[in-house]
Amino acid sequence: MPRLRTALGVALLSAAATVTLSVAPAQASPGGTSNVCGSSSTPAGWVDVQWWHSSGCGSWDFSPNTKQIEQLTGLPVGTSVNACSTTYPPAGWAIVGSYYSSGCQVGSVPSFNPNTWTLTRVS
């Protein structure tokens, strides 16, 4: 009976984590972040800033399936941020550099090709 209770508890926690991670972020303050499942679309005004694997997002392999997103709307002109190249920059942001980052790797086998952009708010 204790094993059944433990298994049920783990299943419920996993389900709760999935629901928590897949909910779209509420309006956050500029520069605010939120963690969501990788299958969720990144909302307008936000960019992906990091990827990793989480069992809470339903994948049984170890490919990255969870992402942290950052709200760029409202940040002042001249601000620079690093963002994964898995989302396009919002209007008013320019790509000023690119490089490889293991935190933006979205496949289980890294390619070491540039996958991260440095973005600067220009307008």
Explain what the structure shows:
With 123 residues, the protein is α+β, with helices and mostly antiparallel strands. The protein has one domain (2-121). Helix content is 17%, strand content 29%. The chain has one helix spanning 2-22; strands at 33-37, 46-52, 66-71, 80-84, 93-99, 116-121. The strands form two sheets. Strands 1-3-2 form a three-stranded antiparallel β-sheet. The longest helix is centred in the N-terminal third of the chain and has 21 residues, at 2-22. The protein is flat and about 40 Å long. Mean pLDDT is 83; it is low at 3-23.
Short note summarizing the structure:
This protein has one helix spanning 2-22; strands at 33-37, 46-52, 66-71, 80-84, 93-99, 116-121. The protein has 123 residues and is an alpha+beta fold.
Q: How would a crystallographer describe the biggest sheet?
A: 3 strands, antiparallel
| Sheet/helix structural class | alpha+beta
Measured on Cα atoms, how large is the radius of gyration? 17 Å
Distance between the termini: 62 Å
Total strands: 6
Mean pLDDT level: 83
Give me the number of helical elements. Answer: 1
Write the layout of secondary structure elements.
Blueprint: H1 2-22, E1 33-37, E2 46-52, E3 66-71, E4 80-84, E5 93-99, E6 116-121
